[in-house]
Design goal:
single chain, mainly alpha, 6 helices
Length: 169
């Protein structure tokens, strides 16, 4: 089958819906099995904790989804940079290149600042003291950056929704 026949039969929207439904279905099945099959099995090393039978399956699913998402993100960036020409700096009056660079810069700066400011205080996790300084700082970095990005997104939506009030002035 040629590329044109496939693209006529499967639009981008139809392909994305199929992928979404496949991922949601697979995730639902794995999570249901995780909770319904052998969830209350006691850990051999620590009898007060559970060691569900299908933990490995759940972890593998999450790692595969993470790897695929990162790979698609990298491919999208590379393809976007290759297709980009100098005329794409402003699209329909929107400074797309400027917005992209500002987004990248703010994200990078937030990651650096939250890593530097991250806590190194040890934590008790599942009855064991966790003291790995780098892992503690990286965890704080991702949590704090995620919260900061959500707050920035909320402010951006509020600012965008006030466009009509600002336009009238």
């Amino acid at each position: 089958m040629t590329k044109s026949k496939i693209s006529k039969r499967w639009s981008t929207e139809k392909i994305s819906h199929a992928v979404l439904y496949a991922i949601v279905g697979l995730s639902a099945v794995i999570f249901a099995l995780f909770y319904l099959v052998g969830f209350n099995v006691q850990s051999i090393e620590e009898p007060q904790f559970n060691a569900p039978l299908l933990t490995d399956a759940l972890l593998i699913l999450m790692m595969v989804l993470l790897f695929v998402a990162v790979a698609i993100g990298v491919i999208a960036v590379v393809v976007g940079l290759r297709k980009k020409d100098k005329g794409d700096n402003v699209i329909n009056g929107v400074p797309a290149a400027k917005i992209s660079w500002i987004t990248f810069g703010v994200t990078f700066i937030m990651l650096v600042i939250t890593f530097i400011a991250g806590s190194t205080q040890s934590m008790m996790i599942n009855g064991h003291q966790f003291t790995d300084v780098v892992a503690l700082k990286v965890t704080d970095m991702f949590v704090a950056t995620s919260i900061g990005m959500i707050v920035l997104a909320i402010f951006a939506v509020i600012f965008g929704s006030t466009r009509y009030f600002r336009k009238d002035r």
